[in-house]
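User: I'm putting together a teaching handout on how multi-component assemblies are represented. Below are the sequence lines for each component of a complex, exactly as they appear in our records. Could you produce the 3D structure of the whole assembly as structure tokens, so the students can see both representations side by side? Please keep the chain order the same as the input.
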Amino acid sequence: MTPAAPWTPVPVPAAADPRSVPSHWYNLVPSLPGAVPPPREPEGAEQDDWGSRIALQQRIRLDAVRAQDAATEPFLEIPERVREELASIGRPTPLLRARALERYLDTPARIYLKREDVLPTGSFKLNSAIAQAHYAAEQGVGTLVTETGAGQWGHAVAWAARRFGLKAVIYWAGVSARQKPGRNALIEMLGAEVHPSPSEQTPVGKALLRDGRHLLGSLGTAIGEAISHAALHPETRYISGSNLAHVLIHQTVIGQETKAQLAALGEQPDALIACVGGGSNLGGFMGPFLAEKAERGDGLLLLGAESASAPRLTRGTLRYDHADPEGVTPLSKSYTLGRDYELPETHVGGLRQHSGSPLIGVLRGEGLLDATAYEEADAFETGRLVLSTEGMLIAPESCHALRAAVERAVLARETGRSEVIVACVSGNGLLDLDGYLAHR
Amino acid sequence: MTPAAPWTPVPVPAAADPRSVPSHWYNLVPSLPGAVPPPREPEGAEQDDWGSRIALQQRIRLDAVRAQDAATEPFLEIPERVREELASIGRPTPLLRARALERYLDTPARIYLKREDVLPTGSFKLNSAIAQAHYAAEQGVGTLVTETGAGQWGHAVAWAARRFGLKAVIYWAGVSARQKPGRNALIEMLGAEVHPSPSEQTPVGKALLRDGRHLLGSLGTAIGEAISHAALHPETRYISGSNLAHVLIHQTVIGQETKAQLAALGEQPDALIACVGGGSNLGGFMGPFLAEKAERGDGLLLLGAESASAPRLTRGTLRYDHADPEGVTPLSKSYTLGRDYELPETHVGGLRQHSGSPLIGVLRGEGLLDATAYEEADAFETGRLVLSTEGMLIAPESCHALRAAVERAVLARETGRSEVIVACVSGNGLLDLDGYLAHR
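Assistant: Of course. Below is the structure of the complete assembly, with chains in the same order as your input.
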């Protein structure tokens, strides 16, 4: 009645183990091929309602992230509590060999997928949201204000705020908020306050509505509203989910894990591919490989996949611009389509912005980062291929990276070259099903 | 420019490792306190259209699972290919200490959650779907026919069928299929054929529609339709996702992992809790603990949480009954509400059936299994509590198990007793958001 189990399990950590999570973040800045151009004031800033944009940023940001933006040391220690939380959400995330996809493509390439989609809110955004919520709690800040494009960052902030006992106020690109009632409901169930942008909540939103500009909303309109909200509510702090150095730094847990996982497999990557909106997924994934890129040159391809409806890296210009249409952000130097660019409606809210990260601007400007752009219908087609081979539904943004990976793998078939392609799956698509259905 | 990384990662398997997955399934049958009553023919079976129900089952079932239903050895070897697939989907699944929930409840109890919700289709059902698809492919069967209640089993079968190159035909309890357009779309994107039940596709469905009975549909109506479909299409085979011995056996990877994980933590469980519909989640989770239960008696509580709208274990009777309203299944002995019982509309499709597993019947009948029932509004309330503490949205079915766990933990607070409560999270709730919203 009590037979001995024939199975002697390989030791598996029963609970999350912080020692499996990197102890430090990787600071991309000292590894970049050039200095990151500093932010600038727009002309006449001192005379208008918002005053010095740089001073405003200093006032509304958390102390710790301001320090990280200015850091020059190559590694920054991850606070123990953050490391514990990162372990508890399932880090390190798996690195999946996509064998079914390889078989379908009949390619000699080996395709690896870094699975950020398995995190509790369904995307990589939680990595930075947890860090920033931790710093807010440590600083005694009770309310965080932020913006979100696709809703992934907003969801992550709502989750992290709840975890650390904070309140979250979220401005969400209106078109995307309306596309995703499910994610909206989840964010509200987590206790966050959500405002589709442009909204009547802030002077920035009111101005856009009054002038009939950017009525669909975008990450940019939401940034402007979140900043103006924080400016008018001194007890709050404003946080970002992309663009800035500290966010890319927080995301380097992805690349460090990937590097260690590839090394354990004895694999050397030939191509690293990520989708690119503000640049935090790409930067966090590729940052820890920058030293290797400097050594290997063309032997290691770094490839960003963007949306053809917001083609900054492929069709924009590298110059100073505001990150929001109203101009309440400082000017920063990045690839931009211009802040007046009216972005069309798409289901790819995470890649839907007119500018991006200055760090990505340096990478691209110095020729280290290749870029390609896809129409959303093509991206969703790749998403369906990934579903029918590997079995998981990935976010529309991630579909762009996967499409580039599939193209490389098909090229490898044609040239007979066995190469190692590593793509980052930034998020899952369960709350983006309507987008998939719209492109069936 | 190339600093050495200060992080020496703990070795983490980069890819799935089949050695981390149990090598054998646990066979519950020899550990049960009594024999499982065999199926019986209904009176007059030989004279009606369907003939011998037992012979029909023999004809439409896969050879391997028929053998497993009759197996008496305590362990059954898991085929290597199945073990590899189980590793590739993320087994072993985590055992999470729910510290945030404990803190909220201010309880001395330690609550552990076995996280089947993290599997690719969002529920534990994949464990058996993979095994059965493997056996079908091995037997040269091209098409699998099955039923599903909440859609979790149907989704898992669609996924596994795609993985093994098979076609899947799925009869889905109509009320649930209509509640979940997202899951429906996913199943269809995986290439499966879906019919809300009762349907015009089968004589069983036509009879129900004609007579105006069970028009909402249920797991039972879908079982009847799937069986009649298989009976009329000899090239297909019919598979089940619950009730029968082989399904519970396939699910014992859950309990074996849990046992090993608890042992690694040095914990001895005081209570094991699972939701109970057909019984495969409960059986697979608790089966490997049956020998321990036999030794510890009341020292180890086994608790099934069912839906108050389908209260078989708490208000039904243990007797022979059909599993489907039309009576195309053999009679089997389990707790039942009677096959004419019109189940009300709920969002808890996975627990919505009039009868269940004969194995669970033995456990309950012999007094080893306690049971409790919850209204769905109360279950969803617990789901919101789990979301706001632990951060994940769990399936409505799993909410029943968690509600029971919360009640035990509150009791532990009142009595001051530090006990170890282990609950199984059978699935995630991302595709059940409408249910949550209906009970906001």
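A couple of points students might notice: The first strand of chain B starts at residue 24 and ends at 26. Chain B touches chain A through 69 residues (CB under 8 Å).
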